[in-house]
């Protein structure tokens, strides 16, 4: 494949009213992508507030990310239906006010027209699928005269990727694709195509995505930034805030048991033990890094269909204080997964686009604040350290032209 094509001469002229940054969702009619799309449209129409959008805080806004009103959405989707119908379902479940789905029905229908069929199993080689995905993204960028497009994976969680030679080396990967082989998981196929389109990637799920070494090499060769993995929206967010408290007060955590109840598509996907393996790995790895020692305690993810798009987590922490006194902390977190995730997705699109504009390449370690499994070297897991790294990076970006 050639380097990413330049916008065609037929692209519409830019203006202050033309959206300049595209958010291209893999899983574009899923709960998170739909909520993010409704959010961009509602904020542009003055129908909501950007609560939960970290990029609106002064310490992050100093980076001068693109405005929320400058975003336009599109994406790939394997499922059927429409954005408007999905928005009605989410509103009925309390994810956002019902009047938004009604007021934005025309805009949602227009956004639905920017969604293309995804790459499913069979029917075409991975080489052909990658070309088609790339062409869809480039056409989206050209048609809307966008300066850049950020591809965000918010699709269903995949099992961990096998460690094959094709995934370790870019040249071997290219030979495998040319030979008609299928070495890439679906998430990595989309990341590959995004890089060939000249677009940065955000891995909001624990799926392999841009992580295989061959794709890290491709991002470097194309001079592109990427961010991931697995958005930190609920229980793990609390862990990354609470665990440093125990460490800094010299309190020994003996066990930390977690029970997670999920509904919706994510919960249904994670009912598969192979898919759950990826999620459990990213959810569990930060605790030991923060506390500095192994911690006993099982972690469960259970699917409860009745919960819909909501999730509940119950944690039991056993810790030891002065002279070996045993104590406990218990907490319950109940939240709406899509309403927690969607503003972070929009933050990541805006900040990744700003990083690309500033010439940054490779894994964006400073965005570790948003992830359970942060990409980059020597990344921290405790929330305070991550916040300081994020705001320092944003201040540096703000100083660049």
Radius of gyration: 21 Å
What is the string of SSEs from the N terminus onward? Answer: EHHEHHHEHEHHHEHEHEHHEEEHEH
Helix fraction, binned, reads 40-55%
Gross morphology is: globular
DSSP summary: helix tally: 15
> What portion of the residues fall into strands of 2 or more residues?
15-25%
Which CATH class of the largest domain applies here? Alpha Beta
The major sheet is characterized as:
7 strands, parallel
Q: What is the number of strand segments?
A: 11
Name the structural class.
alpha/beta
If classified by CATH, what would the architecture of the largest domain be? Answer: 3-Layer(aba) Sandwich
GO biological process, one term: phospholipid biosynthetic process
Family: Belongs to the myo-inositol 1-phosphate synthase family.
Pfam family, one: Inos-1-P_synth
Domain Myo-inositol-1-phosphate synthase GAPDH-like: 234-338
What features would you highlight for this structure?
single chain, 401 residues, alpha/beta, Rossmann fold, Dihydrodipicolinate Reductase, domain 2, 2 domains, four-stranded mixed beta sheet, 17% strand, globular, disordered N terminus
Strand and helix map with partners:
Elements: E1 21-26, H1 31-44, H2 58-61, E2 71-77, H3 83-92, H4 98-103, H5 105-112, E3 115-117, H6 126-143, E4 148-153, H7 165-168, H8 170-178, H9 186-196, E5 201-203, H10 213-222, E6 225-228, H11 235-248, E7 252-262, H12 264-270, H13 273-291, E8 299-303, E9 310-320, E10 326-336, H14 337-357, E11 362-363, H15 383-399
Parallel strand pairs: 1-2, 1-4, 2-3, 4-5, 5-6, 6-11, 7-8
Antiparallel strand pairs: 7-9, 9-10
Helix pairs in contact: 1-3, 1-14, 6-9, 8-10, 9-10, 11-13
């Amino acid at each position: 494949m050639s380097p990413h094509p330049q916008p065609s001469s037929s692209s519409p002229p830019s203006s202050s009213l033309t959206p300049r940054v595209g958010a291209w969702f893999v899983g574009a009619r899923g709960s998170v992508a739909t909520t993010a799309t409704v959010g961009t449209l509602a904020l542009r129409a003055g129908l909501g507030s950007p609560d939960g959008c970290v990029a609106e805080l002064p310490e992050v806004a100093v980076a001068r990310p693109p405005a929320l009103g400058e975003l336009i959405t599109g994406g790939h989707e394997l499922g059927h239906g429409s954005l408007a119908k999905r928005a009605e379902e989410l509103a009925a479940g309390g994810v956002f006010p019902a009047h938004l789905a009604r007021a934005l029905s025309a805009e949602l229908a227009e956004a639905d027209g920017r969604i293309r069929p995804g790459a499913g199993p069979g029917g075409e080689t991975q080489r052909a699928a990658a070309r088609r995905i790339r062409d869809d993204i480039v056409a989206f960028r050209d048609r809307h005269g966008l300066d850049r497009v950020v591809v965000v994976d918010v699709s269903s969680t995949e099992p961990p990727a096998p460690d094959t030679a094709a995934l370790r080396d870019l040249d071997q990967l290219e030979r495998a694709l040319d030979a008609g082989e299928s070495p890439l998981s679906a998430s990595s196929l989309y990341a590959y195509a995004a890089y060939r389109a000249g677009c940065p990637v955000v891995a909001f799920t624990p799926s392999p995505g841009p992580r295989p070494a061959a794709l890290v090499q491709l991002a470097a060769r194309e001079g592109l930034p990427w961010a991931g993995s697995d958005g930190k929206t609920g229980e793990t967010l609390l862990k990354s805030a609470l665990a440093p408290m125990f460490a800094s007060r010299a309190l020994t955590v003996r066990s930390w048991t977690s029970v997670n109840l999920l509904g919706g598509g994510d919960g249904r996907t994670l009912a598969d033990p192979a898919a759950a393996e990826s999620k459990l790995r990213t959810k569990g790895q930060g605790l030991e890094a923060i506390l500095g020692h192994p911690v006993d305690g099982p972690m469960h993810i259970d699917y409860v269909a009745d919960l819909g798009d909501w999730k509940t987590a119950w944690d039991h922490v056993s810790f030891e204080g002065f002279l070996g006194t045993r104590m406990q902390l218990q907490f319950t977190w109940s939240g709406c997964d899509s309403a927690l995730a969607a503003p972070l997705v929009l933050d990541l699109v805006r900040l990744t686009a700003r990083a690309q504009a500033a010439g940054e390449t490779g894994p964006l370690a400073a965005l570790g604040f948003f992830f359970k499994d942060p990409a980059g070297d020597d990344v921290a897991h405790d929330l305070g350290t991550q916040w300081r790294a994020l705001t320092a990076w944003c201040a540096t970006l703000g100083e660049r032209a």
